[in-house]
Amino acid sequence: MKTAEELRSALRAIDHRSYPAYKSLVGSWFFGTYTLNIERVQGDPFAAPSQLSVTVDNRTAGFPLNCWETPWNRTALEDYLLRRFARQAGRFSRQAKGSGKSGVLAVTTPGQEVLERTDCQVRAGAVTLRFEVGFPANGRTINARELEKILFDFLPVCVGQGLLYASAPKGEVEQIIHLAEDQHFIREELARLELAAFVADGSVLPRESGVSDRSMKNAVPFQAPESMAVILDLPHRGTVRGMGVRRGITLIAGGGYHGKSTLLKALERGVYDHIAGDGREYVITDATAVKIRAEDGRKVTDTDISLFINHLPSGRDTTEFSTLDASGSTSQAANIAEALEAGSRVLLMDEDTSATNFMVRDELMQAVIARDQEPITPFLERALDLWQKAGVSLILVVGSCGAYFHIADKVVQMDAYHARDITDQARAALEGRSVPALTAPGFHLPTGNRVIDLSGDSQTRKNYRGDGYRQERLKVKCFGKTAFSVGDRELDLRYVEQLVDGGQTRTLAYMVRYAREHLAGRSVDDIVATLAKLIGEKNLGAVCGGGVVPAGLTLPRAQEIFACFDRY
Ligand code: ADP
Ligand code: MG
After folding, report:
1. Model-level pTM greater than 0.90?
2. Phi, psi of 428 (to 5 degrees)
3. Are 180 and 76 in contact (CB under 8 A)?
4. CA-CA distance, 406 to 193, in Å (whole number)?
5. What is the 3 state secondary structure string of 16-48?
6. Separation of CA 303 and ligand 1 centre (Å)
7. Per-residue pLDDT tens over the stretch 309-355
8. Nearest CA to ligand 1 atom 10
9. Is residue 77 within 8 Å of residue 68, measured between CB atoms?
């Protein structure tokens, strides 16, 4: 491997030359305590910055073995190191000057969730951290002195202060690992105690604002009603009391603005672990839980929605239903069918974002419109079978629809942000009232094995490059968390609400490209399984199918990978 001093000479040799000469720096350079890898160099100062990484051997980094022994510890350590490194890098960004993106030193800043990422990986006894640097220029002329500042003055500080055990405040790394172990412990307890979710006392559920995911200040802390209290003995934090949401059918009821949706939102996010100080550190939901909502206009391919929709006026088959523009109820039916195929054991629903005609049909409507004139079997008539025959739990927010009291195992009222168990009152209120139909004939689980059309513009374009035709891979573009395009096809993921990080969307885009290149004609189940195997055997970057692994990939859950392909 070439040394840092050789890099310095190489830099000085290309100073004042035209920008593309920077490309000669690609490679690995040994800096004594770490290796600097220049992975990809930008074409000009205005393009996306160059991608670099540093690798520190753990003999230097010095993290105790228990920090990276288990996948959950390792992910927590990686997340922590990324945040530390990002804080250091933030001090130096733009300190080196020049045109365009010159001097940018950019590191992914994770949000509130702790997720596996390509930006920081602790593997084989070494820490690797990926980031971007805008290689400095004056106009389009290389300013190597400024890059020398970044690589020789700033970066060693970022590594020294950000990536070494010795530079972390005493006890901080242990706190990170202990939290990860406690969170993992709660996840395992959920299964043992047959809980769908756990919300610890003292949790802060509301967020600062619609655009900030940080915890609200001066919020009313969560407190479990006595009848639902579960006490867990965490390995590090010790005894923790909280609300155990049993598997089965749970309603979250209450007046408008009393905190129902806020609780559900916290449960949606509880499939991921949260950082210390978030307020939701000990809000843990079954990791397969899926938020179900109406999603007018989504694409549906060969999905069995016959559990909910039958005898359409068009006479179309609903066991293999396809549309480019689903209605509120058909989209919600498809979302449930797909969640079941994706192995979800808990469905999370909010009346506010559901299609009314999908949820219930009241008595009066049944009297006026005969059953055989209505294609929809309301969810009310399937929820009980889903739980009793298929073991799929439901947590449903209701504000106006009392019919669900008939099937609820538990009713929690949110009353000015205080949770109360009102199951008995709800039952008492039902006495003497007529019972609507609570099940419908024809219950079955939807069959999967859907094959989606992955075609689009030609899989690879051929480009003439002077020296002959060369295959070009499909272009991947991401639009934040909500959409991406691969080649000529775009996908909108705005309503896949448990996507929480732009990096997950980016990974999905690369997964789609991988599937288009290698897995066309396979079923969605098969694609998801193949991708999981690929990542398990290699690493997250393997979804790029070769070439430089881009910064900023974050692992999505299998449920979101399904959701992506199901909509493609
Ligand atoms: P609902 O779904 O019952 O209508 P929301 O969950 O949307 O109510 O909450 C209404 C408002 O109350 C939101 O602005 C939310 O941020 C705030 N809120 C929710 N829970 C709390 C709490 N525990 N403490 C303070 N404010 C809260
Ligand atoms: Mg609400």
Report:
1. yes
2. -60, -40
3. yes
4. 25
5. CCEHHHHHHHCEEEECCCCEEEEEECCCCCCCC
6. 36
7. 998 888 888 999 999 999 999 999 999 999 999 999 999 999 999 99
8. 257
9. yes
